[in-house]
């Protein structure tokens, strides 16, 4: 929680004329911010499908079966560092007349798709496809992606919201590194956000391992790259 408290905010957010207007925090920043973050186009979320999640977390319909007195977990925790780091980077833009003097989000290109909409791919049972992000552009180092780090992992909850505890669903999606970073095998057991079985590098092979007799045609398997 350090990135939503004053010790971190003072150094990274309370900078420059605009940053000084940001209020001091008595407990933790937030309020209605997570709800608004679902409307920010960053390639993770879809305002029309709040269950997908994003910087503001996932939103699902509450029923009588939910014990609201005990279900107090918050899904934004998995992306808290990413959203706050982006916030800090944008505050640096306010300190320079030349926006090029600060760092910028890369222009992500996956299989020729460079928009912020989700990339939908149909993969038959036992078949494979390749996700290729090698043409991504580092706006701070055009023509060179060596300074960028690529991670690919399966995001269970958006596609299987009722199977959050059933991590075996991940076994039916095969992810293999095709361009691992030098000195690595292209695999990470768990990343800083808490996701497991992470694949490193810009090119990843994805295999549909779901048995053919299973009828999961209405399901979506969400992969974050």
Would you give an account of this structure?
This protein has 225 residues and is of the alpha+beta class. The chain folds into 2 domains: 1-104, no CATH class; 106-224, no CATH class. It has 5 helices and 7 strands; from the N terminus they run H-H-H-H-E-E-H-E-E-E-E-E. The strands form 2 sheets. A 4-stranded antiparallel beta sheet has the order 4-5-2-7. It has a 3-stranded antiparallel beta sheet with strand order 1-6-3, with no helix packed on it. Mean pLDDT is 82; it is low at 69-73.
Main-sheet strand order equals 4-5-2-7
If helices are DSSP runs of H or I spanning 4 or more residues, what is the number of helices? 5
Basic shape: globular
Backbone CA Rg: 19 Å
| E-strand count | 7
Key phrases:
alpha+beta, single chain, 5 helices, Ribo_hydro-like, Cellulose-binding Sde182 nucleoside hydrolase-like domain-containing protein, hydrolase activity, hydrolyzing N-glycosyl compounds, three-stranded antiparallel β-sheet, 225 residues, Sde182_NH-like, four-stranded antiparallel β-sheet
């Amino acid at each position: 929680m350090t990135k939503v408290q004053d010790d971190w905010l003072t150094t990274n957010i309370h900078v420059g004329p605009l940053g000084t207007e940001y209020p001091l925090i008595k407990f933790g920043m937030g309020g209605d911010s997570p709800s608004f973050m679902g409307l920010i186009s960053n390639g993770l979320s879809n305002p029309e499908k709040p269950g997908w999640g994003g910087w503001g977390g996932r939103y699902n319909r509450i029923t009588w079966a939910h014990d609201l007195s005990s279900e107090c977990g918050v899904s934004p925790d998995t992306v808290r560092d990413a959203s706050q780091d982006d916030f800090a980077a944008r505050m640096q833009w306010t300190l320079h007349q030349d926006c090029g003097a600060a760092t910028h989000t890369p222009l992500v290109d996956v299989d020729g798709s460079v928009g912020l909409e989700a990339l939908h791919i149909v993969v038959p049972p036992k078949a494979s496809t390749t996700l290729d992000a090698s043409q991504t552009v580092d706006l701070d180092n055009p023509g060179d992606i060596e300074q960028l780090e690529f991670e690919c992992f399966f995001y269970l909850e958006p596609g299987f919201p009722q199977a959050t505890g059933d991590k075996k669903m991940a076994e039916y999606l095969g992810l293999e590194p095709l361009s691992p970073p030098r000195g690595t095998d292209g695999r990470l057991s768990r990343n800083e956000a808490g996701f497991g079985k992470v694949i490193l590098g810009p090119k990843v092979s994805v295999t549909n391992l779901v048995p053919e007799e299973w009828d999961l045609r209405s399901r979506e398997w969400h992969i974050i790259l």
